[in-house]
Amino acid sequence: MTRLYNFIVFLLPTVLAGSVPKTCKAYPGSSDWPSHKAWSRLNDTLDGRLFAPVPPGAVCHKGWPSYDKDTCPRVAEAWKHYDLHTQNPVSLI
Length: 93
Prior knowledge:
single chain, mainly alpha, 2 domains, extended, signal
């Protein structure tokens, strides 16, 4: 019972402050995602070595420069299979 009480007391300030995130993480286009200017500043600190990969699913999203309506169905079908993800270093499994 003491453990439960300590756990609740520990979490209470976080819940009351409303700081519980509504999504699990930031992604390109979300309000929490850094601006292009912020990425540029970070890249400057890394002497231009910041890697900006394009996820394989970007071909299915019209907002991405790599959007390709002809390639999208093939990627969407391959998405269900492990090989697509293991062969792409930025794919989320």
